[in-house]
């Protein structure tokens, strides 16, 4: 996760301003947003969950 702090734009864009970064050697992914000089972690989800469902928008 230290790389996320140093290179916040390295992960692909998932939806509009939300980026998705897979956590190495785990089934989890971090959904986050970059604003100016800050990284906002929106949630950590299991990779098999439907994180784009209408019930829970990131």
Structure description:
- The chain contains one helix and four strands.
- It starts with a helix and ends in a 12-residue tail after the last strand.
- Strand 2 and strand 3 (28-35) form a beta hairpin.
- It has 58 residues and is mainly beta.
- A four-stranded antiparallel sheet has the order 1-2-3-4, with no helix packed on it.
- It has one domain.
List the helices and strands and how they pair.
Blueprint: H1 2-6, E1 13-15, E2 18-22, E3 28-35, E4 38-46
Antiparallel strand pairs: 1-2, 2-3, 3-4
Q: What does the largest sheet look like?
A: 4 strands, antiparallel
| Overall radius of gyration | 11 Å
How many strand units? 4
Q: Uncertain regions: pLDDT < 50 for 5+ in a row? A: none
Mean pLDDT over the residues: 81
Sheet with most strands: strand arrangement = 1-2-3-4
Number of helices: 1
Number of domains: 1
Relative helix content = under 10%
Approximate shape: globular
Straight-line N-to-C gap: 19 Å
Helices and strands, in N-to-C order?
HEEEE
- By secondary-structure content and strand pairing, the structural class works out as mainly beta
Strand content: 35-45%
Structure characteristics:
single chain, 58 residues, mainly beta, four-stranded antiparallel β-sheet, 4 strands, globular
